[in-house]
């Protein structure tokens, strides 16, 4: 049987089908189909059917040419679109700014700015409302092409710890990197602890993270960033992607210390070598600037002996830089908890302690 645009049933194909939806119910539809089949039976076998008529007589979506074709296979856009790009998708442009200062009643909030999907909360953790700030990413994670800009400034006399509500997730990207820029400013006689929870990098994710710090004489700063390579609960290992993690610390605008950790597509096949990460999937960089550097350095080194992970600490550029590498995020976070607890117990009181949100 041939299907064409013209034929003996051309007029029948032009019937107005609007009455099919006029509320006559299934009986009207069935009657119409019976009438059409009756008309077809009177037509010679060589008659041609129009495309519109075939659509009327075959309301289901079964293919005429391939009636046995497997209809359970679901095609995704990635299967037939080779030109997909993160630029074609909606992406987040998030930002937040927190400025705190000192007062006779403790730390006070001077300025807060937030742009969705980032939110800033100040839960009450003691007598002072502004002891701890919590950043929340309401989008649930970061995708390729997203841009997050975070800024925290502690003015003279302020003391605050900044953390995140949960671990940040960096999702798989097509071809665009996600950008996260953090700016920390610590004024004279101010104390600032930047203690976010870990960042979990999915396979094929692309992340470019930059930490920019401006310190002043007489200030105290504790800054931490963690990276977890893959989702351990899923048994995920990274085989491709991009991770560029950059630190820059300046005093009076002059660079004191800089560092960049870089992983690219061609490197992932070799990161299990002993000279590289070996069996480590969770990494952390901890930086401290302030007083009693030698004492705190010895404290960290003494604690490192009991860690279930690798740890090294040194003095460079007038600050302490410690690196930790563990087989899992659980081991890494346990070591960091020990360091922060010791700092809060044996060092001067302040924001350098385990954040409350780490236990929620």
SSE arrangement:
Blueprint: E1 3-4, H1 10-13, H2 25-41, E2 49-50, H3 51-57, H4 77-80, E3 93-103, E4 106-115, E5 118-121, E6 132-137, E7 147-154, E8 159-164, E9 168-170, E10 178-186, E11 191-194, E12 199-201, E13 206-215, E14 220-229, E15 242-251, E16 254-263, E17 282-289, H5 293-304, E18 310-316, E19 319-326, H6 329-346
Parallel strand pairs: 1-2, 3-7, 6-8, 7-10, 8-11, 9-12, 10-13, 11-14, 12-14, 13-15
Antiparallel strand pairs: 3-4, 5-6, 14-17, 15-16, 17-19, 18-19
Helix pairs in contact: 5-6
Notable traits:
6 helices; seven-stranded mixed beta sheet; 19 strands; alpha/beta; ten-stranded mixed beta sheet; 360 residues; 36% strand
Structure write-up:
The protein has 360 residues and is an alpha/beta fold. It has 6 helices and 19 strands. The protein has helices at 10-13, 25-41, 51-57, 77-80, 293-304, 329-346, and strands at 3-4, 49-50, 93-103, 106-115, 118-121, 132-137, 147-154, 159-164, 168-170, 178-186, 191-194, 199-201, 206-215, 220-229, 242-251, 254-263, 282-289, 310-316, 319-326. The strands form 3 sheets. Strands 5, 6, 8, 9, 11, 12, 14, 17, 18 and 19 form a 10-stranded mixed beta sheet that branches. Helix 5 crosses helix 6 (329-346). The termini are far apart. Residues 1-29 and 43-81 have low confidence and may be disordered.
């Amino acid at each position: 049987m041939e299907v064409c645009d013209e034929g003996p049933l051309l007029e029948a194909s032009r019937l107005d089908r609007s009455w099919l939806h006029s509320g006559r119910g299934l009986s009207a539809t069935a009657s119409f189909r019976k009438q059409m089949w009756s008309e077809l039976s009177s037509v010679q076998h060589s008659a041609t059917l129009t495309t519109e008529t075939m659509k009327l007589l075959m309301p289901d979506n079964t293919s005429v040419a391939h009636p046995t074709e497997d209809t359970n296979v679901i095609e995704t856009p990635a299967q037939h679109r080779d030109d997909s790009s993160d630029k074609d998708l909606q992406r987040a442009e998030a930002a937040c700014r927190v400025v705190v200062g000192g007062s006779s009643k403790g730390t006070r909030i001077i300025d807060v700015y937030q742009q969705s999907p980032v939110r800033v909360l100040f839960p009450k953790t003691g007598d002072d409302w502004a002891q701890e700030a919590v950043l929340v990413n309401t989008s649930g994670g970061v995708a390729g092409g997203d841009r997050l800009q975070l800024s925290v400034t502690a003015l003279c006399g302020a003391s605050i710890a900044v953390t995140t509500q949960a671990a940040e997730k960096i999702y798989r990207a097509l071809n665009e990197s996600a950008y996260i820029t953090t700016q920390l400013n610590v004024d004279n006689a101010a104390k600032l602890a930047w203690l976010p929870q870990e960042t979990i990098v999915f396979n094929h994710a692309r992340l470019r993270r930059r930490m920019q710090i401006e310190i002043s004489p007489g200030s105290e700063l504790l800054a931490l960033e963690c990276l977890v390579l893959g989702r351990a609960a899923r048994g995920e290992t990274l085989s491709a992607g991009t991770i560029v993690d950059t630190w820059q610390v300046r005093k009076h605008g002059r660079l004191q210390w800089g560092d960049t950790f870089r992983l690219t597509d061609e490197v992932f096949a070799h990161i299990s070598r002993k000279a590289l990460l070996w069996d480590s999937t969770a990494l952390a960089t901890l930086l401290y600037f302030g007083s009693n550097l030698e004492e705190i350095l010895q404290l960290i080194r003494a604690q490192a002996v009991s860690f279930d992970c690798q740890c090294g600490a040194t003095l460079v550029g007038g600050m302490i830089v410690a690196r930790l590498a563990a087989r899992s995020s659980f081991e890494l976070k346990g070591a960091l908890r020990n360091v922060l607890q010791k700092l809060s117990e044996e060092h001067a009181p302040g924001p350098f302690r385990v954040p409350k949100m780490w236990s929620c």
